[in-house]
Amino acid sequence: MPTKEALDRAIAEGLDLVLVAPNAVPPVAKITDYGKHKYDTDKLKKDQKRKVQEVKGIKVSPNIAENDLRTNARKAKGFLEDGDKVRVVCRFKQRELAHPQVGRAKLEWIANEVAEFGKPEKEPVLNGREMVMVINPKPAGGTKKNAKAEDKQDSGEEV
């Protein structure tokens, strides 16, 4: 439709003629409210922004009670579900440092509890009086290959 005719139609309807795809041949425009169009495009851009991954921290000690350890594991699951990394620190006091295997066992227990939500970057490392382990969240969606295979199965095609 010619530009003049589209503009006349938009004015008659009390709306705006908005250029949607200026680089297309021929350029694409639509009749809509400009304010609503701008709001929708801004919202789409905001949704497309990548979330900054934060590092959340959890502190435990070698002599932590089992229920407290479960609570910390539950917190870690929540952080991992939100897409954040979790840094688990086991602080040793005084003579506890003589038995680092106890702290390592606590950290590994937490890693096993959150295994379905995240995977440790590396084994727990003893740094001074702290043993540290960082857990990365697992990717939210499956791989593209798996998604394509599922689509083909849903449509009845053979994979």
Structural account:
The protein is of the alpha+beta class. It has two domains: 3-48, Translation initiation factor 3 (IF-3), N-terminal domain (Ubiquitin-like (UB roll)), CATH 3.10.20.80; 55-137, Translation Initiation Factor IF3. It has five helices and seven strands, in the order H-E-E-H-E-H-E-H-E-E-E-H. The chain has helices at 3-13, 34-48, 66-81, 100-113, 144-155; strands at 16-21, 28-32, 55-60, 85-91, 118-120, 125-127, 130-137. The strands form two sheets. Strands 3, 4, 5, 6 and 7 form a five-stranded mixed β-sheet that branches. A two-stranded antiparallel sheet has the order 1-2. A hairpin with a 2-residue loop joins strand 6 and strand 7. The two termini are 44 Å apart.
Quick recap of the structure?
This protein is α+β, with helices and mostly antiparallel strands and 159 residues long. The protein has 5 helices and 7 strands; from the N terminus they run H-E-E-H-E-H-E-H-E-E-E-H. It has helices at residues 3-13, 34-48, 66-81, 100-113, 144-155, and strands at 16-21, 28-32, 55-60, 85-91, 118-120, 125-127, 130-137.
Secondary structure elements and their pairing?
Elements: H1 3-13, E1 16-21, E2 28-32, H2 34-48, E3 55-60, H3 66-81, E4 85-91, H4 100-113, E5 118-120, E6 125-127, E7 130-137, H5 144-155
Parallel strand pairs: 3-4
Antiparallel strand pairs: 1-2, 4-7, 5-7, 6-7
Helix pairs in contact: 3-4
